[in-house]
Amino acid sequence: MPRNKREHAIVIGAGIGGLLHAKIASQFFNNITVLDKDELPDGASARRQIPQGGHANALLPLGQALIKGMFPGIASKFEDDNIPVIELGRTLAYHARSGRMSDFSPTLDIHSFSRPYLEWRIREELSSNKDIKFVAGAEVAELLRAGDRIAGVSTSGGRDYTADLVIDASGRNSTTPMLLKKAGFESPKSKFIDAHVGYASRIYENVALPEPLNALYIPPAPPQDTRVGVILPIEDGRYMVSLMGMDGNYPERYEGRWMDFAKRLRLAQFYDAIKDADPVTNVSVYRNTVSRWHSYESIRMPMNFAVTSDAVCSFNPLFGQGISGAALCAAALSQWLSREFAKGGNLDPSRFQKMLVKTNGPMWTMAEVEDTRCSSVEGQFSVLKNALLHRYMDMVYYAITRDSAVARRFAEVMGLVQPMESLLYPDMLARILRA
Ligand SMILES: Cc1cc2nc3c(=O)[nH]c(=O)nc-3n(C[C@H](O)[C@H](O)[C@H](O)COP(=O)(O)OP(=O)(O)OC[C@H]3O[C@@H](n4cnc5c(N)ncnc54)[C@H](O)[C@@H]3O)c2cc1C
Prior knowledge:
about 425 residues; alpha+beta; FAD/NAD(P)-binding domain; D-Amino Acid Oxidase, Chain A, domain 2; 3 domains; eight-stranded mixed β-sheet; five-stranded parallel β-sheet; binds flavin-adenine dinucleotide
């Protein structure tokens, strides 16, 4: 940690990305101001600007480890709040295209909660830090320029905030490319992949899963089967039930059609689990699921300004990577700031933005592999590279139903605690070819 902290950092956005970056920034700056255009509720309630909060938001093993490391007291709060634990390898039934994934031991255990709960819990952890101030209802409308650097921001209410660093975590609908242009700086090019994914979700009580299960996942198998379903336990003894469709096969809001979609999933166990369960909410729908990457690493960025998390790269959320990705970006912020503080002077973000390429690249590839199986997929990707990966992943999907060591490695890769290449290490390759 630096011996001389600087005075003030602004974080744009109090989503999970913004919160994790505020935590790291507080180790380098005396004061942090987190600005969000939304209202920030006192409890674990939905927010207007976080529509994904009404849908399944799994926190993968990597994200759990990083967040528990950043907030050492948080795991005991999960226990106090009776947050359920999913034991991957035992209590989650993962039905791959060629059958149910084998159980494995030791299991990979993760806490499972709703997105509003997790965000509120982290905000609570930060609220005990007097150096971090939240300003709700503050929409950043302008970046304040001073020569080659950003000196602060201006809100749509006309209030200026100056800072030694502005961290932009404004999420997948970020307007930063436009704000940079307006301030006279270069604006990044972007690429996208769109597999036309839609969500429709509702919360239930009294879901009927057979022992010892507490979670069920039917992943996509495009192009033949584009229907996806997930049941996850959350706080208060409830379950988040999300239906997702790829290739424009969207689940709908209307009760009858929503149930009909559930009935047509490739595994009857899913419908059986919810048919007599008690809905607690209406169905909410969401379709803004394009994977998009703004290449801030390729432009001349203003000094003292860093863009991060979904505002740089947002993924098709079917793979549950976003929060873990945000935690990785926060870890990169810590490394970058340590280096820049040691150098002194203005904070040059070009290195940080390049670090995020390494962070986001593997997650982008994982989403791309499945997205590019869809017949309606649009965007920028390599057909040949993905065709080879499809062939290999088909063998992996088959092997996980027969070999518990491959199943565990696959779960580790999907949980981001092992790299995708680890499915090609000689021991795994031999098992996958043998299966
Ligand atoms: C349907 C769906 C399902 C998902 N499921 C998962 C999952 O299972 N697992 C997982 O890890 N991730 C999932 N994600 C992704 C995950 O929600 C995000 O990647 C993660 O929360 C990090 O987001 P963020 O903080 O960068 O942005 P966000 O969570 O979008 O937060 C951005 C914040 O910035 C604020 N803001 C925006 N513009 C301004 C402005 N100009 N001024 C002030 N404030 C502003 C917004 O109000 C908001 O609070 C899902 C996403 C979607 C859409």
